[in-house]
Design brief:
Layout lengths: L2 H26 L5 E3 L1 H4 L8 H20 L3 H10 L2 E5 L11 E4 L2 E5 L9 H15 L1
Parallel strand pairs: 1-2, 2-4
Antiparallel strand pairs: 3-4
Helix pairs in contact: 1-3, 3-5
Length: about 140
């Protein structure tokens, strides 16, 4: 990771991520740990896109899916009982919504190219809702 990329990651971590983490916890209804593999998200030569792409690729679909799944006490209870952690990373080269999320042993893993198909927020959100409703 070069200097521009490290700066962009740091800026995202300090200026955007805390508010996104707060929204995730509000949507879930409990303190839900989010583990981000920042090095894998930092695509070389794309640092100018991190601040605009990462929320759309990972966090907006996650927040919306948690809100939908947890829209009532049944969903909130199911999430609290079974969803222990969220992992965000870019390790599989995935850029399609139908393959971006997995749920195993209480861990929801979101693995998607960090600057590809950025505008497909709704598709990722819907795929995530379907996965969570199936696994919870």
């Amino acid at each position: 990771m070069n200097l521009a990329e490290r700066r962009a990651v740091h800026e995202f971590q300090t200026q955007q991520f805390p508010e996104l983490q707060k929204k995730i916890e509000e949507a879930a209804g409990y303190e839900l740990p989010v583990e981000v593999d920042w090095d894998s998200l930092a695509v070389p030569q794309e640092s100018k896109l991190y601040g605009s792409a990462w929320p759309k690729v990972y966090f907006e679909p996650l927040i919306a899916a948690l809100q939908e799944v947890g829209r009532d006490h049944i969903g909130k209870h199911a999430m609290k009982e079974k969803l222990n952690k969220v992992v965000v990373r870019n390790t599989l080269g995935c850029y399609y919504a139908d393959r971006w999320a997995s749920f195993e042993d209480g861990v929801l893993t979101l693995d998607h190219e960090s600057v590809q198909n950025v505008e497909e927020v709704e598709a990722r959100q819907n795929a995530l809702i379907a996965l969570l409703e199936d696994k919870l």
